[in-house]
C-alpha cells in the first residue's frame, strides 16, 4: 500500500459554509511532538477564532495508536472525528490538520458541522502537494580494501546512501536506502558475493 505525506508544510486552504469561514492548515508531522507544536502555532495565529479543531495521523497508516482528534469546543463528534475520518479514507500519513472556524452568525447544527468540517479537509487534501513515503532499509557490506572504489560506485549508482565506514582488517560500509534501491544494489553486487559479505534489513 502506497502512503504519502505533505510535501508543502504548512499548507492552507479556505472554504465558506453559510458565512462561517473554515481555514484548513496542514503540516507534515512524523511524530506527536511536531504535531503538538504545529497545533499550538495555529492556535497562536488565530487566538480570536471560535474554534481550532484538529485531527492527526502522526505515523504510518498501520500504526493505530498514532490517530487522535479534538473538537475544541464544537459539539462532541462534530469536528475532530469527521476530520480524522477523511484522513483515514485517504492515503496520507505523518499528517496533522487544523481547521480554524470563524462563526458567521448562522448555526449549522450537528449534521451541518460534520459536513462542513469534512468538506474543509476534503477540499484541502485534494490540492495538497504530497511525496510518496518510502520505507528505509539499512544495509551492511564487508569487503576487502581493493574493492572499495568499485563497491562505493555501485552504492552511489543504486541511489542508496553510505552513512558509516568502519576500518578494520576489512572495510565495513553501512548505509540505507529504499527497498527498490537495495534490490538494485544487491543485483549489482551479485558477481562479487564470493568476495564480500552483504546484508540488509528494514529500518524500524
Q: Give a short account of the largest sheet.
A: 5 strands, antiparallel
Shape: elongated
Overall pLDDT score = 93
In N-to-C order, the SSE pattern is EEEHEEHEHEEHEEHE
Task: Walk me through what this model shows.
- There is one protein chain.
- This protein is α+β, with helices and mostly antiparallel strands.
- It has 5 helices and 11 strands; from the N terminus they run E-E-E-H-E-E-H-E-H-E-E-H-E-E-H-E.
- The strands form 3 sheets. The protein has a 5-stranded antiparallel sheet with strand order 2-3-6-4-5, sandwiched between helices. A 4-stranded antiparallel sheet has the order 9-10-8-11. Strands 1-7 form a two-stranded antiparallel sheet.
- The two termini are 18 Å apart.
Task: Give a short synopsis of this structure.
It is built from 5 helices and 11 strands; from the N terminus they run βββαββαβαββαββαβ. The chain has helices spanning 32-45, 80-88, 109-126, 148-158, 179-189; strands at 4-6, 11-17, 20-28, 51-57, 67-70, 95-102, 130-132, 136-143, 161-167, 171-178, 197-202. The longest helix has 18 residues, at 109-126.
Amino acid at each position: 500500500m502506497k502512503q504519502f505525506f505533505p510535501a508543502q508544510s504548512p499548507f492552507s486552504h479556505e472554504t465558506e459554509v453559510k458565512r462561517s469561514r473554515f481555514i484548513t492548515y496542514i503540516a507534515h508531522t512524523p511524530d506527536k511532538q511536531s504535531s503538538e507544536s504545529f497545533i499550538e502555532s495555529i492556535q497562536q495565529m488565530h487566538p480570536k477564532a471560535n474554534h481550532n479543531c484538529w485531527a492527526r495521523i502522526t505515523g504510518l497508516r498501520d500504526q493505530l495508536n498514532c490517530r487522535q482528534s479534538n473538537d475544541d469546543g464544537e459539539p462532541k463528534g462534530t469536528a475532530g472525528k469527521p476530520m480524522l475520518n477523511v484522513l483515514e479514507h485517504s492515503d496520507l500519513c505523518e499528517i496533522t490538520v487544523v481547521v480554524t472556524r470563524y462563526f458567521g452568525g448562522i448555526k449549522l447544527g450537528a449534521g451541518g458541522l460534520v459536513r462542513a468540517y469534512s468538506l474543509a479537509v476534503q477540499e484541502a487534501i485534494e490540492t495538497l502537494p504530497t511525496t510518496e513515503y518510502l520505507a528505509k532499509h539499512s544495509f551492511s557490506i564487508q569487503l576487502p580494501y581493493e574493492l572499495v572504489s568499485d563497491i562505493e560506485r555501485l552504492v552511489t549508482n543504486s541511489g542508496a546512501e553510505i552513512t558509516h565506514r568502519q576500518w578494520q582488517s576489512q572495510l565495513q560500509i553501512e548505509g540505507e536506502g529504499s527497498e527498490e534501491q537495495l534490490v538494485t544494489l544487491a543485483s549489482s553486487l551479485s558477481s562479487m558475493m564470493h568476495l564480500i559479505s552483504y546484508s540488509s534489513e528494514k529500518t524500524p
